[in-house]
Design brief:
The chain has 467 residues and is mainly alpha-helical. The protein contains 19 helices and six strands. Strands 1-2 form a two-stranded antiparallel ribbon. A two-stranded parallel ribbon has the order 3-4. A two-stranded antiparallel sheet has the order 5-6. Helix 10 runs parallel beside helix 12. The chain starts with a helix and ends with a helix. The chain binds arginine (ARG).
Length: 467
């Protein structure tokens, strides 16, 4: 092989991050070979001891990589053999790098999926806390970025929270679907050795072995699925960040981010820039890019393993890491931000944001909604022209637009009342947001329990394998 070929085909720079999982996969494999009587006990014992030494080096960051070998799998195997002699050469019995890389990457992504769900949940919790603490603060609700109807800050924060709840759920759904062990599919067709795939699957903490060897060594849709989960989360993060950037502008003045999570300008001393939010928003590009990379890369591949598949790791390892760190950062940004509820109230009172409420009021007085819409339109025009709000007009003035308007109109026009009266299920009233807060907390807690159990199961496997 020409040197340039080795350089071009090497994946070591990226897959060295799989070293820990590679050793664990090998430990499970070789212990199974012993249990099934495929390899003699004394060889296996030597291999296991050698692998444990390598594992310690990997954990301490002192496992030496040899760039003359193209990937992490050959590095581990060749290092082992150079240390324990010919027994090391028996490790690869009944296995191929095709099922090996598949199991390594699954184990890596399995941890990443749990970590992502956890990070997204911590952000969700920060949002829920803001909702709890500022429960009934009134702010403008927007459609088309125009003042639409008054809402509570709690309702707005919870809207983001439930998006993230679905994102965290998606990571766990993807986790469940990828919870099958590829090891033992071998190169593509299975193997002639009497291996026990259930044993390796269980040893590595999977629910069961994959069903079909050819599918197994070709399958990267678990990677694509996580790339999608990451992309969708990044889109939601970006949307939250966009709002926080707007809200922290002088024009909005809704929020002030903590000094610890903002930056200054090198030239303008007064500035406090929302760089974290901007960076998170900006990183969305590469996260979506990874999803596109995966889909395009796999779309025309024949079964089974093709070297194209080596290109799956860098983009999705990167997009998972980006989403995890972004969610963690945003969790802190949200938790430490000061929400200026007075300012929110002030701008909410300024517009004609209670127009729908006046129309709904007319409907209760027997006016058909469409007609009410027209009447209120005229009243709004008049109040804008005279530089006032609807609630600042006198009863006589209002009656001029519709004689069914009575004194009780002044009970429904204050913007706080508009927010409080929307008490339909899922609406913005404090009663409704209280329900939402308990729902959100319950969702976080139940995922928390699943994540805890899965991590415990995986840790238990690592302990058992290295005993
Ligand atoms: N470095 C390879 C990858 O990441 C490992 C599998 C190589 N298999 C092969 N038949 N060349 O996909």
């Amino acid at each position: 092989m020409d040197d340039s070929t080795l350089q071009f085909t090497s994946s070591l720079d990226v897959d060295s991050r799989l070293a820990f999982y590679d050793v664990m996969g090998s430990l499970a494999h070789v212990k199974m070979l012993k249990a099934c009587g495929i390899l003699p006990a004394e060889d296996v014992d030597k291999i296991v001891e050698g692998l444990k030494v390598i594992l310690a080096e990997v954990k301490e960051g002192r496992f030496d990589l040899d760039y003359a070998l193209e990937d992490i799998h050959t590095n581990v195997e060749f290092t082992l053999t150079s240390r324990i002699g010919p027994a090391g050469g028996k490790l690869h019995t009944g296995r191929s790098r095709n099922d090996q890389v598949a199991v390594d990457f699954r184990m890596y992504m399995r941890d990443a999926a749990l970590e992502a769900a956890e990070a997204v949940d911590s952000l969700m919790m920060s949002l829920v806390k803001v909702a709890e603490e500022n429960g009934d603060a009134v702010m403008p609700g927007f459609t088309h970025m125009q003042h639409a109807q008054p809402v509570s800050l709690a309702q707005h924060m919870l809207a983001h929270a439930f998006r993230f709840s679905r994102d965290a759920d998606r990571f766990l759904d993807a986790f469940r679907r990828m919870d099958k062990c590829p090891l033992g599919a071998a190169a593509l067709a299975g193997t002639t050795y009497p291996i026990d795939r259930r044993m390796t699957s269980e040893a590595l903490g999977f629910k069961e072995p994959t069903e079909n060897s050819m599918d197994t060594v070709s399958d990267r849709d678990f990677v694509t699925e996580l790339a999608y989960c990451a992309a969708q989360t990044a889109i939601h993060l970006s949307s939250l960040c966009e709002e926080l950037v707007l809200w922290s502008s002088q024009e909005f003045g809704f929020v002030e981010m903590d000094d610890r999570y903002t930056t200054g300008s090198s030239i303008m001393p007064q500035k406090k820039n929302p760089d974290i939010a901007e960076l998170v928003r900006g990183k969305t590009g590469s996260v979506i890019g990874s999803l596109v990379t995966m889909m395009v890369m796999t779309k025309g591949l024949p079964l089974t393993y093709n070297r194209d598949l080596q290109e799956d790791k860098a983009p999705v390892m990167d997009s998972m890491a980006t989403v995890i760190s972004s969610a963690k950062m945003m969790s802190k940004v949200v938790a430490t931000s000061k929400f200026n509820t007075e300012r929110m109230m002030e701008v909410t009172s300024r517009g004609q944001i209670n127009a729908t409420d006046l129309a709904d009021y007319l409907v209760t007085k027997g006016v058909p909604f469409r007609e009410a819409h027209g009447i209120v339109g005229a009243a709004v025009r008049h109040s804008i022209d005279s530089g006032r709000n609807l609630e600042d007009m006198s009863l006589d003035e209002l009656k001029g637009f519709c004689d069914r308007i009575g004194e009780d109109v002044f009970q429904i026009l204050p913007v706080r009342r508009c927010m409080e009266r929307r008490d339909s299920y899922g609406g913005t009233s404090p009663g409704s947001t209280d329900v939402q807060i308990s729902q959100a907390v319950e969702q976080i807690m139940s995922r928390d329990e699943i994540i805890r159990q899965e991590k415990q199961l995986i840790d238990g496997c690592w302990k058992a394998l290295t005993e």
